[in-house]
Amino acid sequence: MAALNPGDEHDRFVAWASDHGVEVDGIAPAKFVGRGMGIVAARDIKAGERIIFVDKSSLITVTAPTVRACKLPQNVTVHGKLAAFLAMQYHNADSDHRLWQGVWPKEEEFRSILPYYWPKSLQEYIPHAGKVLLIKQQQKLDKDWQTLRAQLQPSVDRDLFAYTWLIVNTRTFYWEYPDLPNSHPRLPKKRFQLTADDCYAMCPFMDYFNHSDVGCDPQHGPSGYSVIADRDYEAGEEVYFSYGSHTNDFLLVEYGFTLPTNKCDSLPLDHLIIPKLSASQVEALKEDGFYGNYTLTKDAPHICHRAQAVLRLMNLPTRRYTMFVSGNDDGAADQHAIDSALVALLTEFSREIVETLEAVDSVAGGVVEEQQSRTTRSSKRKSQVSENMATSNGQAVMEQKATLLERWKQIREIVNAALRSLDE
Ligand SMILES: C[S@@+](CC[C@H](N)C(=O)[O-])C[C@H]1O[C@@H](n2cnc3c(N)ncnc32)[C@H](O)[C@@H]1O
């Protein structure tokens, strides 16, 4: 259930936005239990109606004069530059985006939602694909901080920078700079040279929308962003759009949530397959372009072509594998043997899942106690404040644990669905 009037700070922001190039039609921000803000239909909306337009002049990008005025080092990433700008402005009561900043989730909320902040003993149980992403995220943030710290300290400390870096990570949109050749010395002159890492924009009001695997498609053009309703909506319904074709492991690490059903979900099988390969098999797969990136999905045929190939190399005479990867044989004659090999692999995966579910349950209990005792011990007196902190840490860990258990149950369901259909 959504609260249609989420509070004064949101009213003030909406009024500010409408004076700053944001045209809202038929939608409103609303507060949802357990997942912050989102957008609801404020009246019945018809498919094809434009529900929001945001003029490019209101975006925060590296080309904005206020960002350029910060004179940040040339070698820092676009992500780092935007995070530094937001952090430098964070305590400035006169900053242009003060009212917008006031409706973002607070650092405290991020601490419980985003795996970046989770205790190490819980991060350890993030599924393999998510852990790889989390390490990359930590490395990118660290590198940006190292490049910028001399310029930012002492007014901006690492905690504030991490928070604004994660605000950028969870709230930016893909932006292609309509006037690219002259936009910024840090950006390439030619459009085809732009990479995804260059194309970040903070976009007021658009960053209220929550993600779904189906929903409206945000559009960007030379004048700004717009969203067109993908279907009819009744007043009060939540309106989502898609952040992209993301798996739940990606959503968990980058945004701090998973979707209960997600048509884009898949699981990597690399951590189960790669350790079983001999050196010569690795060499052959690399030569043929079939090394790694093996995935499992809930729906038939369950595994990707690359996984079909590697299982053939591991379980059949080499010539059968060669015929398959060269495209001279569709592999149908061997499918039964490959399905049996896959069942063995997934049975091994099932054991890992059961063990992980049990481990998350017990580790999380330990973390709550550890955090509570650490928080209460660190205060001189066992004051109400420290008790409240301990309780909120405890609650955060319980929520993190629930998110993690939920993800492992989704993984179990994908594996079981594949096992059931292979058994038919
Ligand atoms: C662009 S913001 C969307 C607005 C945000 N909910 C807020 O309170 O301001 C992205 C963040 O919203 C949350 N979010 C987005 N889609 C969600 C969903 N389907 N379920 C739960 N949380 C979601 C996640 O915390 C994510 O990091």
List each distinct ligand once: S-adenosylmethionine
Domain unit count: 2
Order of helices and strands: EHEEEEHHHHHHHEEEEHEHHEHHHH
Using only CA atoms, what is the Rg?
Answer: 24 Å
Q: Give the proportion of residues in helices.
A: 40-55%
* β-strand amount: 5-15%
Q: State the low-pLDDT regions, or none.
A: 374-381
The main sheet comes to: 4 strands, antiparallel
Strand order of the largest sheet: 2-5-9-8
Tally of alpha and pi helices: 15
Cα distance spanning the termini: 41 Å
Quaternary class = single chain
The tally of beta strands, per DSSP, is 11
The geometry reads as: globular
Structural class: alpha+beta
What's the average pLDDT?
91
Give structural notes.
GO terms for molecular function: protein-lysine N-methyltransferase activity. This protein has two domains: 143 residues, no CATH class; 157 residues, no CATH class. It is built from 15 helices and eleven strands. A hairpin with a 2-residue loop joins strand 8 and strand 9. Helix 3 packs across helix 7, helix 3 crosses helix 8 and helix 7 packs parallel to helix 9. It is globular and about 70 Å long. The chain binds S-adenosylmethionine. S-adenosylmethionine (SAM) binds next to strand 4, helix 8 and strand 8. The site of S-adenosylmethionine has 17 residues, from strand 4, helix 8 and strand 8.
